[in-house]
């Protein structure tokens, strides 16, 4: 949108327990790992934006309203659901906090509040409200949350892998990732690595022994 961008985008990468990249395929399910499931997360710093109406710089990210003229703003492209819902980037997030944030946002962003505003503001309200609802529904349930986190990490599923078994496998991988983040000693990391190696080997054997169509 015109006058929205005031500075070039910069990318900063943060590495978690970086021990070597690997790509694995289990029954059509492709995921990338560092060691076991040590993902390499890249977070893109947000572009500095200006209010579409008064042109003042927006201080917050994401900015739902301009601090200067109080006008509702359009959704910011590429903002993660975790940022929108003000949640920590973790699989075991606080769902009560998530629900509270959802209700707060919808009270201010809902289209019913903009019936007397301009057409543009009504459109922005509808877009923001729909985005908040989508973010809330995605992060609320463990499965959709895990799939979304994998998507953010650059891991993609083929269309043929949307079975219950594959979904359970994804959740197991997310739990491994959380356990590694919480590990305090090398011994704990090694224990998690050994357990996960056994899980992956067991799954690989099931894939080999599974009857072919």
UniProtKB/TrEMBL annotation:
<dbReference type="InterPro" id="IPR036386">
    <property type="entry name" value="HscB_C_sf"/>
</dbReference>
<protein>
    <recommendedName>
        <fullName>J domain-containing protein</fullName>
    </recommendedName>
</protein>
<keyword id="KW-0143">Chaperone</keyword>
<feature type="domain" description="J">
    <location>
        <begin position="80"/>
        <end position="152"/>
    </location>
</feature>
<dbReference type="InterPro" id="IPR001623">
    <property type="entry name" value="DnaJ_domain"/>
</dbReference>
<dbReference type="InterPro" id="IPR009073">
    <property type="entry name" value="HscB_oligo_C"/>
</dbReference>
<dbReference type="Pfam" id="PF07743">
    <property type="entry name" value="HSCB_C"/>
</dbReference>
<dbReference type="InterPro" id="IPR004640">
    <property type="entry name" value="HscB"/>
</dbReference>
<dbReference type="InterPro" id="IPR036869">
    <property type="entry name" value="J_dom_sf"/>
</dbReference>
<comment type="similarity">
    <text>Belongs to the HscB family.</text>
</comment>
């Amino acid at each position: 949108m015109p006058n929205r961008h005031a500075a070039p985008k910069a990318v900063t990468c943060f590495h978690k327990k970086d021990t070597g990249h690997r790509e694995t395929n289990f029954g059509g399910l492709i995921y990338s790992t560092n060691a076991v499931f040590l993902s390499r997360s890249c977070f893109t710093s947000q572009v500095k934006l200006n209010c579409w109406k008064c042109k003042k710089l927006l201080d917050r990210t994401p900015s739902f309203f301009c601090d200067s003229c109080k006008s509702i703003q359009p959704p910011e492209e590429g903002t993660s659901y975790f940022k929108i819902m003000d949640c920590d980037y973790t699989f075991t997030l606080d769902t009560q906090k998530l629900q509270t944030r959802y209700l707060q946002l919808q009270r201010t962003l809902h289209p019913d509040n903009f019936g007397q505003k301009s057409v543009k503001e009504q459109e922005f309200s509808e877009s923001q409200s729909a985005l908040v609802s989508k973010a809330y529904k995605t992060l609320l349930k463990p499965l959709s949350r895990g799939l979304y986190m994998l998507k953010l990490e650059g891991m993609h599923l083929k269309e043929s892998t949307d079975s219950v078994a594959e979904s359970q496998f994804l959740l197991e991988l997310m739990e491994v990732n959380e356990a590694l983040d919480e590990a305090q000693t090398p011994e704990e990391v090694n224990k998690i690595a050994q357990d996960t190696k056994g899980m992956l080997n067991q799954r690989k054997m099931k894939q080999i022994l599974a009857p072919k169509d």
